[in-house]
Amino acid sequence: MATPAPTTTFTHRRLIGLAVAAQMLFILAVAGAGYATTALGRTITLRTTPVDPRDLLYGDYLRLNYSISQVAPTLWQGPEPPRKHQPVYVLLRPQNGSYEATAVYPTEPTAPAPDQAILRGWVTDSWRHGLRLRYNLERYYVPEATGKSLQKTGGRRPLLVQVSVAPWGQARITKVAELPK
């Protein structure tokens, strides 16, 4: 008369429990990081123009083209020319109600002035007359049937996007609004 080994069953159940717990912790960590960015981050305002507000699979969204998405090559502060996909740090300063790029660094600059902010991005293209940058803030989902009206408004004048930038560099869009008249 053979009896099943209780340690094998216990080990399998324990492994499955640990796997489920690890997945739940990962999901909670991702959600917590987003909330922490909004709660602890510094809010900056960027100018943008929306483009192409509809995706058949995901619904209404705005593809945002910021005024800091394309900068002059004279803002580059690196010893070598920027490369495609290179991470960069953009130093921002408030000008006329929104933040504008004042310098682009290959490494994080130390101790910016209190009125300045640093946004992390990547070089998507560089040429003689400009640098094209991406911040992972270029897509913003809006409630169904509101994307067209925001695109129409954005076609007449730029929209203002409030972005929360956490002290550890993560950024998150918190609000998209029309430019006040």
Automatic annotation (TrEMBL):
<feature type="transmembrane region" description="Helical">
    <location>
        <begin position="15"/>
        <end position="37"/>
    </location>
</feature>
<protein>
    <submittedName>
        <fullName>GDYXXLXY domain-containing protein</fullName>
    </submittedName>
</protein>
<dbReference type="InterPro" id="IPR025833">
    <property type="entry name" value="GDYXXLXY"/>
</dbReference>
<keyword id="KW-1133">Transmembrane helix</keyword>
<dbReference type="Pfam" id="PF14345">
    <property type="entry name" value="GDYXXLXY"/>
</dbReference>
<keyword id="KW-0812">Transmembrane</keyword>
<keyword id="KW-0472">Membrane</keyword>
